[in-house]
Write a structure and sequence with these properties.
CATH topology: Arc Repressor Mutant, subunit A
Distance between the termini: 35 Å
Largest sheet: 3 strands, parallel
CATH superfamily: Winged helix-like DNA-binding domain superfamily/Winged helix DNA-binding domain
Shape: globular
Structural class: alpha/beta
Radius of gyration: 17 Å
Strand content: 15-25%
CATH class: Mainly Alpha
Length: 119
């Protein structure tokens, strides 16, 4: 089964609403499908966080499998310190997993972005 992460722009209240809905459904004994969502407060924050360089890093890591940060930097032809910082931030967001063997890997098969125009 493919692991999917939904990336959205929206208010924190929307995430709380989704949680409350799931909680009530679970309390009624309904089956709840796991949903993984990363929500940014606004489009500017999303674009500042998921920069083209970080997106390229994710694509390369997904295509080539688990790598050390040093090897990833070498393959991307980028400075180790910058790649290390990007990996750290992407791991904080849950987009990258740090493994016990000191390698990093992409945590998701699919990252689906949804950005709605304001009404």
């Amino acid at each position: 089964m493919k692991r999917t992460l939904k990336v959205r722009v929206g208010a924190a209240a929307a995430a709380l609403d989704r949680f409350e809905t799931a909680w009530r459904r679970a309390a009624r004994g309904e089956k709840i499908a796991a949903e993984h969502v990363l929500t940014f407060a606004n489009l500017q924050l999303l674009l500042r966080t998921l920069t083209p360089a970080r997106w390229t890093l994710l694509e390369r890591l997904r295509a080539e499998g688990p790598l050390s940060v040093n090897e990833l930097a070498r393959r991307l032809q980028r400075d180790y310190k910058n790649v290390h910082g990007d990996v750290k931030r992407l791991a904080e967001l849950g987009l990258i997993e740090r493994r016990k063997d000191a390698l990093v890997s992409v945590a998701w098969d699919i990252v689906r972005a949804e950005v709605r125009l304001a009404a």
